[in-house]
Amino acid sequence: MNNKILWAIACIATLLAGMLIGRYWGPGESATGEAEKGREILYWVAPMDPNYRRDEPGKSPMGMDLVPVYADEVDAQPGVVAIDATMVNNLGVRTSTAERGSLSRRIETVGYIGYDEDTLQHVHTRVDGWIEKLATKATGDPVEQGQLLFELYSPTLVNAQEEYLAALGSKNSVLRDASRDRLIALGVTSGEVQRLERERKARQRVRVYAENDGVIAHLGVREGIYVTPSTEIMSVAQLDKVWVLAEVFERQAAWVRPGQQATVELDYLPGETLSGVVDYVYPELDPVTRTLKVRLRFDNETRMLRPNMFARVVIRGDAINNIVHVPREAVIRGGTGSRVVIALGDGRFRSQSVLVGIESGDRVAIRRGLEAGDEVVTSAQFLLDSESNIESALQRMEPQP
Fold first, then answer.
1. Which CATH code fits 120-237?
2. In this structure, how many other beta carbons lie within 10 angstroms of the beta carbon of residue 174?
3. pTM of whole model > 0.70?
């Protein structure tokens, strides 16, 4: 009988204990679940890498489940600073949204106008002699085809003319042809040979004429100077076509190739833009400036483009698709890396390390550290970045529980 009573008492005690535990824990767990459901999730991060963020649940690169980050937990993260809305307004904080899309490789550089070297004519003599008369006196003088450039006195040419005149008086056709070929080989024009055959008189001075229209690009002699075949007497260049030689930075050398569209602006022609294409990319970099030379070709029938004019050149390279990019002023560049300041909302900001890609115009590609839709600070970010770094350092110095 006593055993039955003891057994009944034990059952009643166990039931009462279960009811008490249920009353104590039941409402708490329900309240906690409701609280979890009511909290705002900002994003999901990898447990081992807080920089890996996604907008929805998933797996991290290490295969672990992503962990939600709640809005009420952001302020407790290292590096997050909270600023009053009035102070944000006074600081002039401006933000921009990180965008995902195509980013064109826009090359902005400078260059100068030069002669079209395909039309450049270097004038040399084929014999030794003296410049007796110089018809063009200065660099830049215009010349026309057939215009007299200079008169040359050369004993070799005088003797060659006399030999040809002697051959003309003989009946030896072989000697006559050989003497004529020698005159032409020494640079005497066919017109001068015909004059010899007609007048039968040698000239002490041989005249040299311009072969094409153009201007004197280089003048290396004066009257009375002794010249040899290696002496560059002058250079004649045409202005109907000109080159624009642009300098491209080494980091942008892989962006440019022949056939790409380009525009040129000159201070000489304010408000006007010249359109052209990349004609040639030089194979080597300048060892001093570490830049790659790029050549553009333009028609210049009106002679408005003059050699050595300064030019601003824009070359449109191929675009990169599906890349996150932000304004250039949003990136804070440091000695060991680059950072941006992310606006978390409600006056909260956090400094974020990023890996930057190409820089095109006023946009910079972000290869790692940002997602499309993130708000980045583009004004007063240096102050916020320094405050964020100080706050993060102080939190790391505090004892952890």
1. 2.40.50.100
2. 8
3. no
CATH 2.40.420.20 fits 72-103+321-397, yes or no: yes
**Does residue 290 surpass a pLDDT of 60?**
yes
Residues near 158 by Cβ (< 8 Å), separated by ≥ 6? 202, 203, 204
CB 234 within 8 Å of CB 216:
yes
- Report CA-CA distances (Å) from 84 to 100, 383, 389: 31, 14, 18
CB atoms within 10 A of CB 251: 10
Cα separation values, 124 from 115, 220, 230, Å? 20, 11, 7
Instruction: Please provide the CATH number assigned to the domain covering 107-116+239-319.
Output: 2.40.30.170
Question: Which token pair is 371?
Answer: 């997602």
Residue ranges per domain, the chain?
A: 1-38, 43-70, 72-103+321-397, 107-116+239-319, 120-237
Point out the least confidently predicted range of 82-86, 138-142, 178-182, 249-253: 82-86
Instruction: State the Cα–Cα distance between residues 200 and 193, nearest whole angstrom.
Output: 10
What tokens were used for 239?
A: 């202005």
Q: Per-residue DSSP letters for 292-352? A: EEEEEEEE-TT----TT-EEEEEEEEEEEEEEEEEEGGG-EE-SS-EEEEEEEETTEEEEE
Closest listed residue to residue 336, CA positions, set 348, 320, 324, 354: 354
